[in-house]
Amino acid sequence: MTIRLAVRASTLALCTTLAASLALPAQASGIDSVHPKAETAPLFDDETGGNANADDPAIWRNTAAPGRSLVIATAKQGGLRVYDLDARQVQSIPAPAGPSADDKPGRFNNVDLVHGLRLGGTRADVAVVSDRGNDRLRIYRIDRDRPGGPLTDITAPAARPVFSADQDEINEQKTAYGLATWTDRATGRSYALVSQRNRTRIALLELLPTPAGTVDYRQVRTLDLPSSFRMPNGATWTPCAEPGELPQVEGMVVDPADGTLYAGQEDVGIWRIDAGLTGTPTLIDKVREYGVPGTYDDQTEECTPGTDPGFGGENLAADVEGLTLVEEADGDGYLLASSQGDDTFVAYDRERDEDNEYENAFRIAAASTTLDGSEVCDGAAALNAPPPPPLGSPATPTASSSSRTARRPPVTATAKPPASSSSTSARSSTPSTDQ
Fold first, then answer.
1. By CB atoms within 10 Å of each CB, which of 34, 111, 130, 169 scores lowest?
2. In this predicted structure, what is the pLDDT of residue 15?
3. Which residues are the signal sequence here (predicted)?
4. In whole angstroms, what is the distance from residue 210 CA to residue 269 CA?
5. DSSP character for 197?
6. Does residue 207 sit within a domain?
7. Bridge partners, 426 (sequence order)
C-alpha cells in the first residue's frame, strides 16, 4: 500500500513505534496504510524494565557508510537507546540521577541532531537531549566506531537548568520537554529550541562549545504561545487540563532551508514560528477538538468533553505529537505530524508560500501477528536519503498494553513504491499519559 504524496527519493521515517518504507503517490483519496519492515525489542515502563518508556527518535545517517547509520531514541527514565538499521540495540545510556534520593531522577524526553558542530578545532555530529527530570540539556558526541558505543556525553559540567531557578522548581517538573535543533545558515551558530512541560513557553538556547571539548548553552530568548483562544462566536476557550497546567508543546522541527520552526501545541494544533522566536506565530492547522469545552474530573483525572461547537480542524486528532520533515533535493517536501488521537500521520506541503497546505494522511499498520503497527505515536523522525540495500531501517517503540505496560519498539515499514520512486518512513509512538 502507498501514501497519498509523491516522494522522489528514499525516505527513512521513524516513530517511537516503527519505521516504514513508504511510497507517497499523488492523486489519491482516503487513508492508506504502509507496513513495518522491522521493530526493536519492547521496553517496559516498570522497575524491572528500568522505567524505560520509548518517546522520541532521531536518525543519524552515516554518510561514509549508510548501512552503518543509527537511530537514537529516548526512553524517559531509561535514558537513551541506540539502534542499528536492523533494529538491534548497539548502546544503552542511563539517564543521570538527581542530586539526591529525594530529587527527581533524570528523564530523557526528546532528541535531535546537530551536524558539524565545531569542537576543539574539529567538527562533529552531536545528539542533543532534553532531560526533563533535571531540567537540562545533555549533549552526546557521535562516533560510530568508538569502542564501547557510538555516543559519548560531552555536556559541560556547569550546564544550568533550562527553566528552573533552583532544585525545588526542578522537582515541580515544569521543566525541559520538547526539543528541536537549528543551525542558522547565516551565522553558523547552532541552537536548541526547548519547550516547557505544562506551560506554553518555548526557549531558544545557543549551544556553546568549550575549549575542553564539552558543550554548554545559554538562553537567548523565550516565547509564550497562547493558553486561551477567542472563538468565532465570541467565547473564550481554554483546553481542558489538570488545574494549574497550560496547553504544552512537545513535537517540534525546524526547516533548515528558511529557519522556520513548526511546533505542535498538543491540544491546540501546529504553529509556524520564526526559529529565532521573533515575529508573530501562525496557527497553520487546528486539532478537531479545538474549541470543545471540557470539565476536569479529579477522581478520574480526565476531562469530560462538552458539546462540540464546530470550530476545530479536519485533519488532526489531539494530541498533536511528533513533527518531522521529508526534504527533497529541489526544495520541495512535506511536514509530517503524528495525529495521536486517530493513529495517523498527516502530511502538509513544506513550502510556506503554499501556506503549508494539507496534502494527505496515512497509517502504519501491522505487517503480521508479530510485526506491530503504530498506535498512539509520540515522537517521529524522517530521513529522505537512499538507504543501503536491502531497504530497511529501525523504528522506535509504540505503546502497547501488557501486564507491564510494554511499548512496542520502532519499526521500518515497507510499502510497494510506484515505478518512478521509492521511499522509507519511520516514526515513534507512546501513550499520552504523563508524556
1. 169
2. 65
3. 1-28
4. 38
5. T
6. yes
7. 19, 381
- The secondary element (H helix, E strand) that includes residue 295 is strand 294-297
Per-residue cell: 433: 499519559
- Classify residue 5: in a domain, yes or no: no
> Grid coordinates in use for 434?
504523563
Name, in order, each residue with C-beta under 8 angstroms of 368's C-beta and a sequence gap of 6 or more. Answer: none
pLDDT tens for each residue of 363-408: 988 888 888 888 888 999 988 887 555 433 333 333 222 222 223 3
C-alpha distances (whole Å) from 51 to each of 7, 377, 410, 417 are 38, 19, 18, 39
pLDDT in the model for residue 194: 98
Query: What confidence score (pLDDT) does residue 388 get?
Result: 58
Beta-bridged to residue 20, according to DSSP, are 13, 36
Distance CA 44, CA 408 (A): 9
Residue 8's pLDDT is 30
Please, are residues 161 and 133 in contact by the beta-carbon 8 Å criterion? no
Query: How many whole angstroms separate alpha carbon 428 and alpha carbon 148?
Result: 26
- The boundaries of the domain holding residue 401 are 11-429
Q: Which of 379, 392, 405 is nearest to 17 (CA)?
A: 379
Nearest CA-CA partner of 301 in 216, 219, 240: 240
Inside any domain, residue 435: no
Measured in degrees and rounded to the nearest 5, phi and psi for residue 70 equal -135, 155
What's the rounded Cα separation, in Å, for the pair 166 and 154?
23
Predicted local distance difference test score (pLDDT) of residue 360: 92
pTM passes above 0.85: yes
* Positions of the chain with pLDDT under 70: 1-30, 387-435
CA count, 13 A, side-chain hemisphere, 47: 0
Strand partners, 199: none
Cell numbers at 300, concatenated: 478520574
Round to whole Å and give the CA distance between 155 and 213.
Answer: 9
What pLDDT is stored for residue 315 in this prediction? 97
Tell whether 78 is covered by a domain: yes
Give CA torsion, residues 30, 382, 84, 135, to 10 deg.
Answer: -120
Q: Report how far Cα 274 is from the mean position of its chain's Cα atoms.
A: 19
Give the containing element (helix H, strand E) for 113. Answer: strand 108-119
Counting the structural domains of the chain, the total is 1
Considering the chain, what percentage of its residues have pLDDT values greater than 90?
68
pLDDT computed for residue 419 by the predictor: 31
Residue 391 three-state SS: coil
How far, in Å, CA of 96 to CA of 99, rounded?
9
